[in-house]
Structures are given as structure tokens and as C-alpha cells.
Design brief:
- The strands form six sheets. A three-stranded antiparallel sheet has the order 3-4-9. A two-stranded parallel ribbon has the order 1-2.
- The protein is of the alpha/beta class.
- It has 18 helices and 13 strands.
- α14 crosses α15 and α14 packs antiparallel against α18.
- The radius of gyration is 31 Å and the shape is elongated.
- The longest helix is centred in the N-terminal third of the chain and has 17 residues.
Length: 454
């Protein structure tokens, strides 16, 4: 077996890219990068009825989006290919013949079975309602890198080639790992029940099994059941479509079942690679919290360089000619709302009133303002002092409002809600004075006039 660590992610392209699969890929990638090993992407595409080109494309796109580059596999090549199981039939045939020659197989009902070693006996199976043959085989000892020592013994011979002639998962999985020199198999805990079968096959072929690490499952937030593709936030494609920050999604998935030595939660890719170890992987299943992921996404958006945030936002406005007419103004507007957005897709809704003069107004806000005096009277007072303002910047505008309030015997915050509503139609948003500075004197005074005259 190779002295260099070699790990693999071996998905079946039968549907969209599930976060559970993405987390398995991530843990393999982290371990390979942490140890200077090799990360192999292997495609288990022998299910001809369910495998689709669209699913493979979604998988590749999702892996690339998450930044999970592979050293060998589709598009990368390598010395251990082919990397599609559908292209490895001759390799499987070779190892089937080896098992036959060793006397460890027999045919039954057209299928090829792997024959366990051990004392044979019959026992009534209440589920099947009949006597079945069982085997007292020696337990396979698995020194799992996460779960510790695990002993499992198979009780029945199992199929390795179906009556159709198609080799089953157990056989092809073992043959692929063996011939690709895989040293460590990192996969979900739900595969633990398969591992004793795989160890039996490795040893029947005269090889020691690789090291195993079975990672905890991802459960629904309620904790009731494994997260399925129908659950909210279960598909990587959803995050791509909703313009989440890839690094944020990868960061959150990395913390599902793993924690570093300290309390750090926000990681760069390099930091997570450096900190990752199996010692930090929990034996307990992890609950998927979509709200926490969104919160982490917001943290990434706020920490992002403003120029990058603006560039990421541009495609959302590609159909809005008005917004992109003045790119300097657009950039200033987008920077204003960067601290407010939890998702990039929220940006368009946060800045609609900055572009064009037609924008909705919140009737509830209007009613609330009317209960605190005549809003048009306050807007008129602000308009008078703003029209006389020579320096249009946030600090000067704040001083102007402060002077107005002092003169009228009130507070500047008495004017702020009316001022915001008059120029935006809503009751909240970016900090008011920087917002007015970006909007510019002409736009602000024209909207105040329109509000007063409405």
C-alpha cells in the first residue's frame, strides 16, 4: 500500500449534490491537504437507470464552487484511472476470477456469492419465515480513527455479482480502493455496517484493508432522522442559486461533526486545513441548522472587501438598466448595505429605492409617523435647511439637522424617521446620513418636495 496518504470521495451521480455528500468530500479533502496526501474523486456510475449527466455536472460544479479541488479523477486524470466505475469492468472481472480461483465464491440463483469462512448452521428467520443458513465467522476488527475499536462479524454469505452479471457495490468499492492505492477510507457512519464485508473481501484477496474513519451523520435540525434531499438547505445547488459565499458554506459544513482545539468558528480554507484532525471529529451525529449557516454567511459578507461585495452583487442587477447606468453611484449604494445583508440575494430588495423615482412606500410606517405630528411639516423644515447646505456630506448633514432641532426646541431624531421615509418609502435601512450623502443633494431634495406635495 502507498506510503503517501491517499483518500477518495466516491459519489454516485444519481441526483443533486447533498450537503451530507459535500461534507464527506470536505473531510476527505481536509485530511489530504493536512497530511500532504492525494485526494481522489471517483465516480460510482454503475447504476445506469439512475445516473444522469445532469447529476454529474451538478456534482462537479458543486465541488468546484466549494473550492474542493481533486488531484486525480475526472478532468484531472491520474495514474490510477479510469475514474468512472462504468469504465472499469475489465478490472472487476479480473478480481472476480481471483476470488473464484481462491474457492471463496459459489453461484446460487444465477448470482455469485462470496463465501465466508467459519462453522455453518441453520436458524429460523422470523422475518423471512423460514430456515436460513448462517456462518460463525471470525469478527473483523476495525480500528476506526474516529470510533475506536469496532468488531463486526458477518453471519451470511453475500452477493458480489448479481444474476444480471453486474458486480455489486461491496465488490467494486473494495477493488477500486485496492487498485487505486487508497490508504484511508473516510465516509459516513451509515457505511459502518458495510465495513466488515469489505474487510472480508480485502483479506480474501490477500490484502490488508485501508484505515477507516466513519464520520457522524447529518441530522435534521429537529434531530429526528437523517437530513434528506427534501429538507430545507439540503442541496448545495440551493446555495449556489442563492449566491451564498462558497467559503461560508464550506466553513459551516466543516463544523458539522468537527471542532477545533479552540473555540474558533470562522476559518479560511488554509486555517481549516491546518487545524483539521480526526481527534476533533465527534462520534455524535450533527444537527443541520440552516439559520446558523445563514448567520455565518452574513459574517463572511460583512468581512468581505467592499470591492468584492460590489462585484458579487452586480450580476443580480444585470436586468436592471437603471441600476448599472452609473457604476460609481451603484458601487457607493451597494457598499452602504453590505453590513445589512445576510444573503447576497437580499441586496436588490435593500436598495430598490436608490434607483429611479418609482418605489413602494410602507403604509404602516406612514401611519406610525402621522401619529407623531404632521410629517410633511417636518419634511418641509428639513428641506429648507438642506437646500441651503453647501457641503453635502454625512457629517455636515448631521450638523444641519442638529442645528434645526436646536432651533425648534426638539431633537434631531425627531426628524430622522420622516426624512428616511420621505426619501425611501421605508422605515429602516443603512445609516441615514451616509445614505443621504450617497443619494446626493438633488435626489434627496426632489424626493422631499414630492413627499410634501403628495
Amino acid at each position: 500500500m502507498s506510503s503517501q496518504i491517499r483518500v477518495r470521495f466516491a459519489p454516485s451521480p444519481t441526483g443533486l449534490f447533498h450537503v451530507g455528500s459535500a461534507r464527506t468530500a470536505l473531510f476527505n479533502w481536509l485530511y489530504a491537504r493536512n497530511t500532504g496526501g492525494v485526494f481522489v474523486l471517483r465516480i460510482e456510475d454503475t447504476d445506469h437507470e439512475r445516473n444522469t449527466p445532469e447529476a454529474l455536472e451538478a456534482l462537479i460544479k458543486g465541488m468546484r464552487w466549494l473550492g474542493l479541488d481533486w488531484d486525480e479523477g475526472p478532468e484531472a486524470g491520474g495514474d490510477y484511472g479510469p475514474y468512472f466505475q462504468s469504465e472499469r469492468t475489465s478490472i472487476y472481472d479480473e478480481y472476480i476470477e481471483k476470488l473464484k480461483a481462491s474457492g471463496r465464491t459459489y453461484e446460487k440463483d444465477g448470482a455469485l456469492y462470496f463465501k465466508l469462512e467459519g462453522e455453518r448452521y441453520t436458524e429460523f428467520d422470523s422475518h423471512l419465515g423460514r430456515e436460513v443458513e448462517k456462518v460463525k465467522s471470525a469478527p473483523q476488527v476495525i480500528d476506526d480513527m474516529i470510533r475506536g475499536r469496532v468488531e463486526r462479524a458477518e453471519e451470511r454469505d453475500f452477493v458480489i455479482v448479481r444474476s444480471s452479471g453486474e458486480p455489486v457495490f461491496h465488490l467494486v468499492n473494495v477493488v477500486d480502493d485496492l487498485t487505486m492505492g487508497i490508504t484511508h477510507v473516510i465516509r459516513g457512519e451509515d457505511h459502518l455496517s458495510n465495513t466488515s464485508k469489505h474487510c472480508e473481501l480485502f483479506r480474501a484477496l490477500g490484502e490488508e484493508p485501508p484505515k477507516f474513519a466513519h464520520i457522524p451523520l447529518i441530522l435534521k435540525y429537529s434531530g429526528k432522522g437523517k437530513m434528506s434531499k427534501r429538507d430545507e438547505g439540503a442541496l448545495v445547488e440551493q446555495y449556489i442559486e442563492q449566491h451564498y459565499v462558497p467559503d461560508a458554506v464550506r466553513n459551516y459544513l466543516g463544523l458539522l461533526g468537527w471542532s477545533p482545539k479552540n473555540d474558533q468558528e470562522i476559518f479560511t480554507g488554509d486555517e481549516m486545513i491546518r487545524e483539521f484532525s480526526f481527534a476533533g471529529v465527534s462520534q455524535s451525529n450533527a444537527k443541520f441548522d440552516h439559520d446558523k449557516l445563514t448567520h455565518m454567511n452574513a459574517e463572511y459578507l460583512r468581512a468581505m472587501p467592499a470591492e468584492q461585495f460590489v462585484e458579487m452583487a452586480k450580476p443580480l442587477f444585470s436586468k436592471d438598466g437603471d441600476a448599472l447606468k452609473d457604476l460609481s453611484y451603484f458601487s457607493d449604494v451597494i457598499r452602504l448595505v453590505q453590513p445589512k445583508a445576510n444573503r447576497l440575494t437580499e441586496v436588490e430588495g435593500l436598495v430598490g429605492y436608490f434607483f429611479g423615482n418609482e418605489y413602494p412606500t410602507d403604509a404602516k410606517v406612514a401611519d406610525r409617523l402621522a401619529k407623531k405630528g404632521d410629517p410633511k411639516e417636518k419634511a418641509s423644515a428639513v428641506l429648507d435647511v438642506f437646500e441651503e447646505s453647501e457641503d453635502w456630506n454625512a457629517e455636515e448633514l448631521d450638523s444641519t439637522c442638529e442645528a434645526l432641532a436646536t432651533k425648534s426646541g426638539g431633537k434631531k431624531f425627531d426628524y430622522f424617521p420622516v426624512l428616511r421615509f420621505a426619501v425611501s418609502g421605508v422605515g429602516g435601512g443603512p445609516d441615514l446620513m451616509p445614505m443621504l450623502e450617497v443619494m446626493g443633494k438633488k435626489r434627496v431634495t426632489n424626493r422631499l418636495k414630492a413627499f410634501i406635495e403628495s
